[in-house]
Write a structure and sequence with these properties.
22 strands; Methylamine Dehydrogenase, Chain H; mainly beta; single chain; globular; 1 helix; 4-stranded antiparallel β-sheet; 8-stranded mixed β-sheet
């Protein structure tokens, strides 16, 4: 009996300490391909009211733009001062917010005119932005996501993103999709699907091979840029200096 009890106790202990289950993997099916400016160093991407809004990076090249999805035509643009490296963007009400990489400063613009409406500040690096409709979510290149009050732009909390207990660093461009945060992982072809309550990765999207080899040039850089059309249930992805933007459907592996 004593041996049975010891074995039962061990089994309970082993079950309680079991590792988290591996997150499922997804591939993709291309639904449509759109033209994209091959010189746009994409840092942030948002779909809003039928148009794409894009934030671009690099010193002396950074800015924001409104883009016609179907043709890639830039309808409106505004550069930021040359010393700043532009990063992620998000739309909140009638404003567009843009991060910068290392300056600990962001810019506010009128959404319709792109006229400057102020600046804001945050500690550390700025990488990606999105919103769940109540809060703004920010990435900073680490495994953490920050949450902001969208009106005061003050931080209200953070979570650490993990997969099977392992922190996932270098989270980059963000998008809110059906209750999850999608995040590009810098220098990879993968997007993490993240539970915003726990920080756990609920799935991985593998976009390897999305841009055909014949479309690569010496300027082509990494996958970066996720936008979601909630009304049409359309998911768009692109990369830094990619000549194409893709509408995709996820396919579970």
């Amino acid at each position: 009996m004593r041996t049975f009890l010891l074995l039962a106790a061990f089994a309970v202990c082993a079950c309680g300490s079991a590792s988290p289950a591996a997150a499922p993997e997804y591939g993709y099916r291309i639904v449509h391909t759109y033209p994209h400016d091959p010189l746009a160093f994409t840092q942030g991407l948002v779909y809003h009211d039928g148009y794409l809004y894009e934030g671009t990076g690099l010193e002396e090249q950074s800015g924001i733009r409104k883009v016609k999805l179907e043709t890639g035509e830039v309808l409106r643009r505004r550069a930021i001062p040359n010393q700043y490296f532009g990063e992620g963007i998000v739309i909140w009400k009638d404003r567009l917010l843009e991060l910068t990489w290392k300056a600990e400063k962001g810019f506010l613009y009128d959404l319709l005119s792109f006229e400057p409406k102020g600046e804001f500040h945050y500690p550390g690096e700025g990488w990606g932005l999105t919103t769940d409709g109540r809060r703004i979510v920010m990435s900073d290149g680490t495994a953490q996501l920050r949450f902001w009050n969208p009106d005061s732009l003050q931080e209200t909390g953070r979570i650490t993103v993990t997969d099977e207990g392992r922190p996932i660093a270098e989270l980059n461009e963000l998008e809110w999709v059906k209750g999850e945060v999608y995040a590009n992982v810098w220098q990879t072809d993968r997007i993490a699907r993240i539970d915003p309550k726990t920080g756990s990765v609920t799935g991985w999207i593998d976009l390897k091979g999305l841009l055909p080899p014949q479309d690569y040039t010496e300027l082509t850089d990494v996958l970066n840029g996720i936008a979601y059309d909630a009304k049409g249930d359309r998911l768009f992805v692109t990369g830094k200096r990619w000549p194409k933007l893709f509408e995709i459907k996820l396919v579970k592996k």
